[in-house]
C-alpha cells in the first residue's frame, strides 16, 4: 500500500493569512496510465469529505480559487492563499493510483 | 444533480454481518463513466477505502478486507450495497458511499454511523 504522511497534523491560522499542508507519499503515486491520482479533500465537522483538488493541481467544480495544489514525485502541497472562516476542518490527501489510501488528516483552525 | 444516501442498521452485534445500501437519486448508476465506492472512517484507522464496484458488477476490494467484503449493484433500484461479515468493535465508524470518476472521489453521501456492540 502507498502510505501518505501529512504535516502538520494541526495548524492555527489567522483569517486572511495563507496556510499550507504537505503530503509525502511512501512511493511515487504514478498510475500505470501515467497519471498521478493525488487528491485533496476537506471535511467540515459533521460533514462528509468533499473533493477540492484532483490530479495534484486541478480544482474540482465550485472550489474557490484560493485553493491550489502542487507537487511532484513523492511530495505534494495544498495551499490556501487567504484563509476564510469556512475553511476550518480537516484536510486529507489521498491517492487512487493504486488501491486508494488517505493521509491521516490535518486539522485547520482559525486563530 | 446526483445525490447519494447511505442506509443501514446503526447497531450490529459482534460477529454478525453488516449490510449497507447506498441509494442514488438525480442520476443513474448505470453509467460506464463512474465506479461506486465504499469508504469508512473509524477511530482506529481514519479514512479507509473498502472497495469499489462498477454498474456491471466488477469489484475492486481492499486486500485487507477482501475476505469479509461483498459488494453488489442493483441497477433497477439505482442502488449498490456492501456486506461486511464477522464484524468486531474495530469496524465501528461512519460508512460513506461515493461516486468515482477517473479515480476522483467526486461526490460523497452524508454517511451512516455503525456501532458494533452487544
Task: From the structure above, extract its key features.
heterodimer, A: 111 residues, mainly beta, 7-stranded mixed beta sheet, 4-stranded antiparallel beta sheet, 0% helix, 49% strand, B: mainly beta
Describe the structure.
The complex is a heterodimer of chains A (111) and B (118). Chain A is mainly β and 111 residues long. Helices cover 0% and strands 49% of the residues of chain A. Chain A contains no helices and eleven strands. Chain A has strands at 4-7, 10-13, 19-25, 38-43, 50-54, 58-59, 67-72, 75-80, 89-95, 101-102, 106-110. In chain A, the strands form two sheets. In chain A, strands 2, 4, 5, 6, 9, 10 and 11 form a seven-stranded mixed β-sheet that branches. Chain A has a four-stranded antiparallel β-sheet with strand order 1-3-8-7, with no helix packed on it. Chain A starts with a strand and ends with a strand. The relative contact order of chain A is 0.34. Chain B is an all-beta fold and 118 residues long. Chain B is 0% helix and 55% strand. Chain B is built from no helices and eleven strands. In chain B, the strands form two sheets. In chain B, strands 2, 4, 5, 6, 9, 10 and 11 form a seven-stranded mixed β-sheet that branches. In chain B, strands 1-3-8-7 form a four-stranded antiparallel β-sheet, with no helix packed on it. The radius of gyration of chain B is 13 Å and the shape is globular. Chain B starts with a strand and ends with a strand. The mean pLDDT of chain B is 96. At the A-B interface, strand 5 and strand 10 of A face strand 5 and strand 10 of B.
